[in-house]
Amino acid sequence: MYTFVQKFHSGWAYLALLLLVFAVINSFLGMNSKKEFTGKDRKIALFGLIGTHIQLLVGFILYFISPLGLDSFGQMKDAALRLTSLEHPLINIIAIALITIGWSKHKKAENSTAKFKSIAIFYGIGLLLILSRIPWKMWLNN
């Protein structure tokens, strides 16, 4: 089961990142072009939100069944182990919380520019945080 969840988490990450990048680019383009925020823009942002939340749920499952999770807290001097057991989960929880805040703020915004701006800023910061804590060596070797 661990192998399946790990492969799913790694594979879904490609889709989640693609959706998130697409949402950020769409929001920056919409904000800079002063276009109207449409249902299509809402769906793009929503798919980015859903993709990252699914990744978070699968990540939680993986964390609690993984030998790299809770049992490795005593070995914080090992950078690779610290990344997978502490930094990656913690920073990604913060990133997905920011993405969720961006979604909530866009719903309360009065005009299209403010909607695009909320998504662009919060999703963008979330994306940068996620990219900063991906265990690239492990991910690319799968």
UniProtKB/TrEMBL annotation:
Key words of the record: Membrane, Transmembrane, Transmembrane helix
Spans through the membrane: 12-32, 44-66, 86-104, 116-136
High-level lineage: Bacteria, Pseudomonadati, Bacteroidota, Flavobacteriia, Flavobacteriales
Protein name: 50S ribosomal protein L27
